[in-house]
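Anyone able to model this chain together with nicotinamide-adenine-dinucleotide?
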Amino acid sequence: MQSVDPFENVIEQIDHAAKYADCDNDIVKTLKSPQKSLIVSIPIEMDNGKVEVFEGYRVQHNNYRGPYKGGIRFHPGTNLAEVKTLATLMTFKCAVVDIPFGGGKGGITVDSKKLSEHELKHLTQGYIDKIFDLIGPDKDIPAPDVYTNAQIMAWVMDEYSHIARRHSPDVVTGKPLENEGSLGRETATAQGAVYVLIEYLKTKNLEPKDISIAIQGFGNAGSHAAEILFSLGAKICAIADSKGAIFSQEGIDPHIASAHKEKTGSIKGLKGTENISAEAIFNQKVDVLIPAALEDVITLKNADKIKAKTVLEIANAPVTADADRVLARRKIDVIPDILANAGGVTVSYFEWVQNRERYYWTEDEVKEKLEKKMTRAFLDIYEFAQSKKIALRDAALALAIERIAKSTKNRGILN
Ligand code: NAD
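re: yes, here you go
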């Protein structure tokens, strides 16, 4: 599925950004390989009585700032290189928003849409059984990612609690509210990205109501981002999901698009819009392009055709390293994933704190704390970028590297 090794991509980005970080080169070396990678096989008895074996992964990249933290992805294209990449990004993301976690990630190579609910539950339980020794409330805390959701996290909590013989809501975040999830978690990634975009727009004397948007991916992160931006007056001109894409010069109401997708299984064919090719989402004439689906979608093949002035990376690693250079040359700002989508892990952290306190916050409290974290993170990175005259991605990575390096040094690791 991917033409470039996503892990090579992230290593290239680290090497590039490290030049701007005030830290010892040895720590940078340690950040270029995960501390632990586990591959497991999970046999499941399917509804038809036959056994199928699925491959799963858990990668623990770095825990010098706190327990590993990162989602679980169910996708047919998931492989070890992808999970390693995403685990690495999590270490930097947690440092960017300054929460006391390191980076991890998990995944199973599976087309989960083809599994029944019963099969999905057994697959989740089998996976947790296999990675049980690695995870734990003070060790490694999973969360949802592509094609996993709150229900799956409830099964994760239950299976872990069952094996540990201890009620353990703090072993996983992104749980349903009825199972000690946090208010505001469902929309956290999108909301966090919007807080960051608002701050970025302020630097250009703009507001959301002044901008038009094209968005790729209309799942948890993408659809909520479209809805929040629409509510702030932004014009959503184009939307793509895995089945196709639509465009309207007048703008699309994302609530109507969601209802249409719910009814028909796709956003294609929405009344008042034009069907466009999936690839055409990248060359629409809009102010902000938001990749919110999978990685490596903006490559050398399409980076030259992008007409947006800004790319807001809600997806993880949607821009390849070489495409990033093309965008920089073309003066297209990229608000990097480790900042733009860090709202999800920030509210995951809030959920973990609430689970440990056994005391739950209101939605307004969660949103207020999230806004503070995201605004602070944006301003730190923006000021760093301005002072060194570098791109926001380099600034975000360099700042994260400095924070990880300081914590590593203080602990006496590597010196
Ligand atoms: P999701 O499973 O809810 O949605 C994924 C969306 O992508 C779906 O609409 C799907 O149709 C679409 N999609 C898949 N393949 C596509 C393709 N080839 N072309 C166009 N659209 C395609 O997943 P999500 O949770 O919304 O995650 C989306 C991205 O955001 C991922 O990169 C994920 O790692 C990142 N992210 C999510 C969160 C979160 O809290 N949900 C947090 C941080 C980062």
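The first strand starts at residue 36 and ends at 45.
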